[in-house]
Write a structure and sequence with these properties.
Length: 121
């Protein structure tokens, strides 16, 4: 399977911005965005830092933020993290929040449920 990229809109309390060709990383839990972008859009800071283990086993300290992310005309609140040297990626938590899944046979994003927030109990 190749690399799948998508365009997204990220919104904070001050503004929203569009990012094109963002890599979807199904091995990443959270979306990773530049800290400068978080500050620019007014992303909500989640207090404290968390330790994140990278694919190579290295551990780094990351800041977490609350943002709204829109992909394919569907939008949801998501957690995004930022740390030094990070590459921008979309993680599976964001895909789940928005209701999207990656079809490995077609290499396309598809809706896993009707658009909008889901609450099942």
């Amino acid at each position: 399977m190749g690399h799948l990229r998508t365009d997204i809109t990220v919104r904070g309390s001050r503004k929203e911005t569009e990012l094109t060709g963002v890599l979807i990383d199904t091995g990443a839990t959270y979306t990773v965005l530049p800290e400068s972008l978080m500050e620019e859009i007014g992303a909500s800071v989640i207090p404290g830092e968390t330790e994140v283990e990278l694919g190579d086993g290295k551990k780094v300290k990351a800041k977490a933020y609350g943002v709204r992310i829109k992909i394919k005309e569907a939008e949801a609140p998501c957690i995004a993290i930022a740390f030094d040297g990070a590459k921008t990626v979309i993680g599976v938590e964001t895909l789940e929040s928005i209701g999207l899944k990656l079809d490995p046979t077609t290499e396309n994003l598809e809706f896993s449920r009707p658009k909008g927030m889901a609450y099942f109990y």
